[in-house]
Amino acid sequence: MPVSFIVLAAGMGTRMNSDLPKVLHKVAAAPLLHHALAAARSLDPARIVVVTGHGAAEVEAAAKGFDEACECVLQDPQLGTAHAVSMAAPLLDKMSGDVIVLYGDTPFIRPETLEAILHARARHSVVVLGFHARDPGRYGRLISQGECLETIVEYKDATDEERAVTLCNSGVMCASAELMFDLLTRVENTNAAGEYYLTDLPQLARAQGLSAGVVICDEAETLGINTRRELAAAEAAFQARARLEALENGVTLTAPETVFFALDTHIGRDAIIGPNVLFGLGVTIESAAEVKGFCHLEGCHISRGAQVGPFARLRLGAELAEDVHVGNFVEIKNAILDEGVKVGHLTYLGDADIGEFSNIGAGTVTCNYDGVMKHRTRIGKRAFIGSSTMLVAPVSIGNDALTGSGSVITEDVPAEAVALARAKQVNKLGLATKLMARLKAIKAAKGKA
Hints:
449 residues; seven-stranded mixed sheet
């Protein structure tokens, strides 16, 4: 049976003290919204609808940047969670299957938990996700008998006996599309805030003789982000879990507490990650590769047996084939390095194709930008690029070719050729002593002035 998702992402997040919509603040290099969307997408949903409000254009751009298939609807004015969900009715009320409501500021709901909610729907018309809180505080309480949910009681309305209950409401809810949107039409706003609350749905369902159920997850999954402090706590929680998962999956982390992963980082078994490595989005590292300390990686792919770093930066579009070596203070962007390429140190390779077993000397720069457009450099197989070579793109270096150190290469170099492109050296005998004496005299005169 198909499942669709409604992700609520309309809130301003006043307590974040920020001009940025709350759901666009980042954990693990990705907006909070992307975490919720990633969980939803893991179930291969029929539809995902994001309900926007504050900063709607930015939130919609972020949603579609994650998945172009996301549909967005605007909640304006914002009259509560039930009102927000009802905004998706024109898109989903004719859908078959179930609808799950998620929150864009609650990033850690696991796919396994969503699966458990769908399984519970086989037994109950409405399913709510709950958790046992160490400090229940002002959370709404789930009053239940076993897995059967009787009602959701808001803290302010709860009796002392109900407040003693530790089973709390996460806000995540599931029902068939038909039932959910029917129940939403029955929700009233007879409360102090004059808002329509999604928490009314289980009681409305029971009033019709239908069953409501509860699925319980770990409290850590339900962490909602409302303040900068909670954002920092969420980052710490994500990193702790990601590091543990990497270790359990056979990745060596020499100083785990110093490595920071992104939402979508993928690392193969027997890879080695040194200290103080920072991952941005879009990084894949194959088995038996090594990333040494103090590297910054984003949007790149590192193949089996390759070595990177220390102090290297791989940017979007960097593709390293097997057994490539990238050393210290090397930056690579939108470049493909074929098998066995060596780039030892102090080099920038941007918009380039480097053939297998070529060696790139220290201080080499692909001069890829003319102030308006980017141009590509192509280096063939087994080429040797001398130290401090400037490769002014567009330019090609043939197989087995060589450039002399300090050359500025502006024309294509044929295969097996040696390219020398530098000014002729001139030695002025005895001039160094005279020049130094003159400079010292000038300095002394200035000191007396």
